[in-house]
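Thread: Modeling a multi-component assembly for a lab meeting

Hi all, long-time lurker, first post. My supervisor asked me to bring a structural picture of a complex we are working on to next week's group meeting, and I have zero experience with this. I have the sequence lines for every component (669 residues in total). Could someone generate the structure of the whole assembly? Inputs are pasted exactly as I received them:
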Amino acid sequence: MNMTSNIEQEIKQLKDELNQHNYNYYVLDKPTISDLEFDLKLKELEKLETDNPQFFDSNSPTQRVGGEIIKSFKTVVHKNRMYSLDNSYSKEEIIDWETRVKKILGVDEVEYVCELKYDGASINLSYEAGVLLRAVTRGDGYQGDDVTANIKTIKSIPLVLKEKLIDNFEIRGEIILPLDGFNKMNEERIDIGLEPFSNPRNTASGSLKLQDSTEVAKRPLDCLLYHVVANKNPNKTHFEALEMAKKLSFKIPGTNKICSNLDEVFTFIENWDTKRHKLPYETDGVVIKVNSLAQQDELGYTAKSPRWAIAYKFKAEQESSILKEITYQVGRTGAITPVANLEPVQLAGTIVKRASLHNADQIEKLDVRIGDTVFVEKGGEIIPKIVGVDFSKRPKDSQPTKYITHCPDCGTELVRAAGDAKHFCPNEYGCPTQITGRIQHFISRKAMDIDGLGAETIQLLFKEGLIHNYADLYELREAQIIPLERMAEKSAQNIIAGIEKSKEVPFEKVLFALGIRFVGETVAKKLAKHFKSIDNLLQASFEELISVDEIGDIIARSIINFSANPINIELINRLKLYGVQMEVTAESQVGKTAILQGKTFVVSGVFAHFERNDLKKSIEDNGGKVASSISKKTDFVIAGENMGPSKRNKAEDLNIPIISETDYLKIIG
Ligand code: AMP
Ligand code: ZN
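Re: Modeling a multi-component assembly
Sure thing. I ran the full set together rather than chain by chain. Output:
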């Protein structure tokens, strides 16, 4: 009994601690412990919860990783309707709005709160008895989808409130995908031959509807809150309500501002119209709200929107220009991307000459033609896009755009699989761009990371007939390279040395470098860990492949296709012959990783699983540093049996965490 309550106590304390750290990291952006220490605590909690299932808690920080699969989202009727906002595009419209407000209220002065209009998907969070009960999308405003399981994976949303400042309430906000995370996700998608997402807003709202919450947990979503809805609101103003929400741990942007008249409102708008581009997420306007809750009540709602608020929309970063030509790019996987070549135009501070047209459907939908005056917009993504055509300026003799039927590079007839947005050149092994694209991928930083070789050199080597595939790299000789354009002895030596060194690159990276479609960095790691060698992997059956954690049908089929092709088998046999790592080596079984990057360890005592030197090597293999004595710079002490008491005291004095060998093994997985 006593024992149980001790464990319960311990679990509670760990949960509180982890909640606080999540808050520090995800809401305040001011972590107070290292990721590693956090992971350790989380693992400790996980273990306690698994060993003591009676204390399972669906709101525990361990539940943030997702896991629930939702077949279909339950429809939930909103307790309080979720209205739209009236939009305005000019000062005049805002002045008109103020006039109406003042007239209804019968006052001369009104206080406002200005907020940015975050561009994402709206969400309604209901809290009861201090815990998150439900998260529902806006839907049609009357009813939405219950997406609670997905929302719980967003770490800036508190699952349990630490203070009781208000009874049951709802809080509304915007689920957003910050630009950094969005761009990173797209880089990864491009890496594995997937179509990049088109913009952060659609990706955020699409993420809420994913059926696998584990997938949602991997997306760097965030939630900014802007409205507290409560029967018994203890606050007098909207601003105070948001301050209260901030105290309850919700993420309330610091950009909110009280304005005592419209002049201040206009200054806010002008300021943010340019400054907003420096924010880590996208915004598309300003929302102006009457601050007093009593006045909000009095103003009430129209059929569609509150009378006490109005949105001002920033003008989109849009320009018009003339479409001179459509060119077609061939990717490493054979995917064709149409690119608009434009009359150069100044847009959001840069000169734009090219814009993406995505695919054939997009061209057809927009009915874009050569010679058209088109509208170009810059969203969060790097390449601007064409969003429309100014039909009034269309030349009389203009002809509908005919999408290409053959590869611009090798002339092979293009194919388009059912359900694929893109056309593909099927000439995988004969199409020059696909060949060089694959070799460029092979040498890239995250793959074989070959020093001295760049994308252009690969093209040159290919053009000169010196390489036809990545295996050929290993047969290159200095004497062949020196005579080439812009090459010197030194650069030739560097290239050969870089290629030689790549033979040490661990198997998981080699596997990624092979460029098997859908096998990205993370998937390659998983596969390497599970199958241990290329032979095991290529002999695996479909069933074996999908039995691996996180390997689905698409990846499995792609691997089977790859191994069914004799060309690939020959390439792999050659790579083996040259000495490229095609299996995990004994020491890399522990996994050479960067998990411990930047961390300094001191090892003390006798260990059960490791010889002392092996433990040190393992730390280094995982990116950490080993020091001989404890100092302020030490991050962790790994203690074995018989750790010296003086060392222990020193570590305790300096507040350095002492972990066991088992803890260490858990960290490096
Ligand atoms: P609209 O979709 O144009 O009717 O605009 C209303 C939507 O703006 C709301 O449903 C919210 O999702 C979103 N929004 C973004 N930021 C705010 C904010 N600060 N206050 C209110 N609504 C906001
Ligand atoms: Zn081709």
